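Entry 14. Two folds queued back to back today. First construct below, sequence then structure tokens.
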Amino acid sequence: MIRDIREIERIRGAISVGVLSLLFGSPLSAQHDPTTLGTRMLADPKVRATLDAVLEDEPAVLADQVSLCEIPAPPFDEQARAEAYRDHFERLGLENIRIDAVGNVLGERPGREPRPHLVFSAHLDTVFPEGTDVSVAREGRMLRGPGIGDDCRGLAVVLAVARALDRGDIETTGRITFVGTVGEEGLGDLRGVKHLFDNELAGEVDRFVSVDGAGVGLTTSAVGSHRYRVTYRGPGGHSFGAFGLASPIHALGRLIEAVARFNVPQDPKTTFTVGRIGGGTSVNSIASSAWLEVDLRSIGIVALDDLDAWFRRAVGASLDAENRRWGSGGRLQVDIKEVGRRPAGQTLPEDPLVQAAVAVTEALGLPVRLSAGSTDANIPMSLGIPAITVDGGGYGVGAHSEAEAFDSTDSALGTQRAVLLAVGLTEP
């Protein structure tokens, strides 16, 4: 963390070298040493003024972060926040502003040329159900409220990028589409970004950056997930009078026990969890139905497919075992419903997009950490489109809990990095 003004000034100089290398050195087409270009590039007053303005604008970024966060955006009901985000786009003077068929908010900033086309996005939705108190409390540098980091920070940073480019009068080579997506969290199943690449922007995107959450990390690998709701059904009956009937809840227990015994690889990291269960009528009834929801994940495509096959076999085995246990005592049936599918993928470290992100991060004096995650970037990665997710700066704790908090110490660094990426990634 930066603690004194001398460190800030050192980083400002590094930022200027880095951004000018991006602007004039075409980092996506060749490798460049910023120090060899620094003398000529640091003379550019427009870029230096833009970088200074980014620091000065951070209070406005934090204000946007709070105001957006206090608009509820529960799963599958992001409309109110989407409309507010559209209003922000209009005030920023973006073009072709619209809310698409699934609720994504889009606005465009043209460049000198239509390509390369960069999409810069954050997600509108939260994990919190309707009725959650989403008010934000300020305690010095700390902001406390559900969703304040994930992803109200990303939403505010995306706005800050568009504002900084205008205030700095920066003309990019390619165009940028700014997006607030729906359905990134949970059972939203990435429906917003899936729609972008299937419909709204199909075949038009060259590079994709998602700003998601707090911190300074870079997500370059997409964790794939398969999610299922499994429901067992049977005749049900009285616990004493109908004893001998096969029980959906007992079959559910057999399945959970089988899942708990899965041996999964550590590399690629592969995981499983039964996240929710339900069913039954009363303590003295044999249930007529019972269900569970399971989340299967892996960085590896093959490993995830193998885990999926194991799970499906376990479902069938648990059904057969419960039916055999009770013979003719009422046969159970099972239904497997897919409730989510996120593809795995990766943007390789040697990809120019990742190299540009690393260069910008290093120029800011920040640590480089390439990580894996499940974000909107999963979809373009799976399609072979260069994509990353970047944290939005600051420091976050308690994501996905009502005690979520955001420490704004040095948060401007995340905003600056996003601005530099937006400029650099629109170069050919």
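Second construct, same run, same settings:
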Amino acid sequence: MTTETKPNEQEYNKKKDNYRGSSSDAVYAFGLFGAWFYYISTASTFWEGLLGVLKGFFWPGFLVYEFLKYLNL
């Protein structure tokens, strides 16, 4: 006797990958919305507001860069 498994059994036995968000996702989202609110509310033209939306995505990079510059690293 062979112990071959059927294709349906193999698919059933595969590990299912489930993504669960972490608390850092929520912190990043609050920071993203806060940055968008700040940059858009201080913009005087449409293009400055659009640039603010783009800056909102990269605010953690700006933060780390300025912090490392402050530490003279």
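Quick look at the second one. The mean pLDDT is 81. Residues 22-70 form one domain.
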